Amino acid sequence: MVTAAGEPKEAPPGKIYLDTYLDGVSALPAEICRVFSTVKDISSREQELLETSEKLTARCLEIPPQTSRNATDEQKKVLAGLRSELEVVHKNLSMLADEKVELTSTAYELLGGHISLLDEELVKFESELTFNLAEQELEHLHQQQADALANRDNRTPTAAAAVTYTAREEFQIKQGDQVAAKTSRTGAPDEWILARVMNVSDDSSTITILDEHADAGGSSSIHHLSPRQVIRLPKPKEKKNAKLFQEGSFVLAMFPETTMLYRAVVVQTPRWQGKNGSWGPYSLAFDDDEDPNNPGYSINRQVAFQHVVPLPRDFKLPRTRGGGVASINMYM
């Protein structure tokens, strides 16, 4: 593919992933057809053996049992021969059944492997599509910033800007980091989500984040926030002497099986897992997470080390149904 200027044009990511997958799957139909053709042949042989077995059984039933007084020696000899033939037929049926199971397992593994590969390629494709949409948004943001810088006076940076830069250096927020991001409006109760940093502006005043849970291309998947609205998440393999939140202290933590972060209190600090070279989970009690078996007390939940961050000083609690603020009652 070439552009209007005659330069090579890069193929769309979807075509690259599709071609890669088709190269690997091209031989699959022939392999599957071969397996099922063999299974069909075995089924035909099984049917013939079943018919033979039914005929032999019918003949056996026509002859008096060997223990019968009316059975002659000749009949006993014929009956013994028929039983021997039946045993051979049943043995062959068992072998054919095992062969069919083995062939079916082979077909299942072939299909399963290609399905797993397709799932991996789809994840890569969806991720690239999401990032492409984010890059378009970032290009628009960069253009806005460039226009603003062109019209800005060459004044000395204010103290607020200096503090912002220092904060960025301290927490080392950079593109690609996973963070906790505050997306609620000013004055509203705090709402924090799990997000990924897409860009940090040159003057560190704006951090562009991508909601980890939002659908690709969703109108609310990208947010432009100030540094005060973003907290970098620690990594599970932080240094062994990393600073821990002590028992009884309030933290901001991701509720299990969600991508939302809420206020919680530390019930038990994590332990260093030397075998894995990483920190174990915190035991936390979240606001208004009452234990149904112990009314008035919160459930102690296990939360991964990397999903627990400091609680902002100006954190605004949501109102409960009764009009009060959320609360925590713990039991150890």
Automatic annotation (TrEMBL):
<dbReference type="GO" id="GO:0000124">
    <property type="term" value="C:SAGA complex"/>
</dbReference>
<dbReference type="Pfam" id="PF12998">
    <property type="entry name" value="ING"/>
</dbReference>
<dbReference type="InterPro" id="IPR010750">
    <property type="entry name" value="SGF29_tudor-like_dom"/>
</dbReference>
<dbReference type="InterPro" id="IPR037802">
    <property type="entry name" value="SGF29"/>
</dbReference>
<feature type="domain" description="SGF29 C-terminal">
    <location>
        <begin position="169"/>
        <end position="317"/>
    </location>
</feature>
<protein>
    <submittedName>
        <fullName>SGF29 tudor-like domain-containing protein</fullName>
    </submittedName>
</protein>
<dbReference type="Pfam" id="PF07039">
    <property type="entry name" value="SGF29_Tudor"/>
</dbReference>
<dbReference type="InterPro" id="IPR047288">
    <property type="entry name" value="Tudor_SGF29_rpt1"/>
</dbReference>
<keyword id="KW-0804">Transcription</keyword>
<dbReference type="GO" id="GO:0005634">
    <property type="term" value="C:nucleus"/>
</dbReference>
<dbReference type="InterPro" id="IPR024610">
    <property type="entry name" value="ING_N_histone-binding"/>
</dbReference>
<dbReference type="InterPro" id="IPR047287">
    <property type="entry name" value="Tudor_SGF29_rpt2"/>
</dbReference>
<keyword id="KW-0805">Transcription regulation</keyword>
<keyword id="KW-0539">Nucleus</keyword>
